[in-house]
């Protein structure tokens, strides 16, 4: 791998991110999700990983509505171009995203995914048990972003764009 840069995505990155997501997933659903989240202003943070000026990874952190007044984001989707996988790019995007969300005052981040992968970042199903979401279950995980911060409690609503995923 050559020069890696992780930065916040901008409007000019939308097309490349869409191409990346379409190639990383079996359908356009994730690319369409991110486009709808952008359009609605429902993204707390969007990061891209570039190698030599080409986008090879993307991490999107949508805002979740909390009935307990918490600042909560989710990680969905995370994608790395096929040729760049298993080189730490996804992990670098997740780490940077959690740092940025913490700096921006978020209390929690949730993810729906493989506990073996996301556990290394501090996510766990046990930490998500106090929340109520449409995705409750063993693959719904949370990580606290502030030491001694707000407890995991209350209902969380995902942006309307997620309804299209079925």
UniProtKB/TrEMBL annotation:
Lineage top rank: taxon: Bacteria
Transmembrane segments: none
The N-acetyltransferase domain, residue ranges: 4-150
Alphabetized InterPro entries for the sequence: Acyl_CoA_acyltransferase (IPR016181), GNAT_dom (IPR000182)
One Gene Ontology term of the molecular function aspect: acyltransferase activity, transferring groups other than amino-acyl groups
Keywords recorded for this protein, A-Z: Transferase
Record protein name field: N-acetyltransferase
Species: Hansschlegelia zhihuaiae
């Amino acid at each position: 791998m050559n020069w890696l840069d992780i930065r916040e995505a901008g409007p000019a990155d939308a097309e490349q991110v869409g191409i990346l997501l379409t190639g990383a997933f079996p359908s356009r659903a994730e690319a369409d999700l991110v486009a709808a989240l952008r359009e609605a202003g429902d993204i707390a943070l969007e990061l891209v990983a570039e190698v030599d000026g080409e986008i090879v990874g993307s991490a999107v952190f949508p805002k979740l509505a909390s009935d307990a007044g918490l600042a909560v984001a989710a990680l969905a989707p995370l994608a790395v171009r096929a040729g760049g996988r298993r080189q730490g790019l996804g992990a670098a995007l997740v780490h940077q995203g959690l740092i940025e969300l913490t700096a921006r005052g978020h209390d929690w981040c949730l993810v729906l995914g493989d506990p073996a992968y996301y556990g290394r970042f501090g996510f766990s199903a046990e930490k998500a048990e106090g929340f109520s979401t449409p995705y409750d279950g063993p693959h719904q995980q949370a990580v606290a972003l502030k030491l001694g911060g707000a407890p995991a409690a209350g209902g969380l609503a995902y942006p309307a764009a997620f309804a299209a995923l079925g």
